[in-house]
Amino acid sequence: MTANKIVLVPTLGVPDWQQRLADPEKHWRTGYSARAMAHSWEAAGGWPAEIAKLFTAAYGSVQPLLVVPEWKTALPGGNRASQSDAFLLARHQSGLVAAAIEGKVEESFGPLVGEWKSPASAGKTERLDFLRSRLGLAGDIDGLHYQLLHRTVSALLEAERFHASDAAMVVHSFSPEKRWFEAFALFANRLGGDALTGEPIQVNVPGKISLVLGWAVGDAQFLQA
């Protein structure tokens, strides 16, 4: 499984976000999530107002401690890690929260579980069983998006790594039409939550770590950046 290096250096600006992409040329286009999100977070000098608002609603007073673009979380069942657009570690009144942030504009959440698992392999079976177990998902999940499963589990794993009491998976969407919100809402519903734009969604998963999902609406000005 692929893991992050322990030694990190601060970003000096938006170009440092680009260099961490899996494909720095293909994935770096005006109007797309990677570029819009990089400009948004760098312009905010920490975290954008819509992200801060969501976390404040969930945890009260919150202080961001660490933001790392393109953070990789190792998962069982193969060598490909879950790569969050940003990893956020923050302190609130009762402890720490580790969050996986997923940027979106018009891009989908990728294949459905039913599509991703075919053709079947030992590695895919191992990974899907692991994701199911961590999220407490039983029954048919073929209609859920695979990316939402592994990104959310990555937040739980990072919470364990940093001994955080809380985990969060937040979609930072710059889509004026809220594209793919329905897919996110379906996933939240399967975990026992009702999805509302800009509001934290407390969901139930096995274990001691508390999990929140969220959909934050980014400033459309960054679609032109």
Keywords:
single chain, 225 residues, alpha/beta, 7 helices, 23% strand
What is the topology?
Layout: H1 14-19, H2 33-44, H3 49-59, E1 62-73, E2 82-92, E3 95-104, H4 113-116, H5 122-135, H6 146-161, E4 166-173, H7 181-190, E5 201-203, E6 210-217
Parallel strand pairs: 3-4, 4-6
Antiparallel strand pairs: 1-2, 2-3, 5-6
Helix pairs in contact: 5-6
- In N-to-C order, the SSE pattern is HHHEEEHHHEHEE
Tell me roughly what share of residues is in helical segments: 25-40%
Please give the radius of gyration in angstroms. 16 Å
Which structural class do the helices and strands define?
alpha/beta
Number of strands: 6
Report strand %. Answer: 15-25%
What topology, given as strand order, has the largest sheet? Answer: 1-2-3-4-6-5
Whole-number mean pLDDT: 94
* Assembly context of the chains: single chain
Number of structural domains: 1
Principal-axes geometry comes out as: globular
Residue stretches low in confidence (pLDDT < 50, at least 5 long) are none
Termini Cα gap? 35 Å
Main β-sheet: number of strands, strand sense, barrel status? 6 strands, mixed
Number of helices: 7
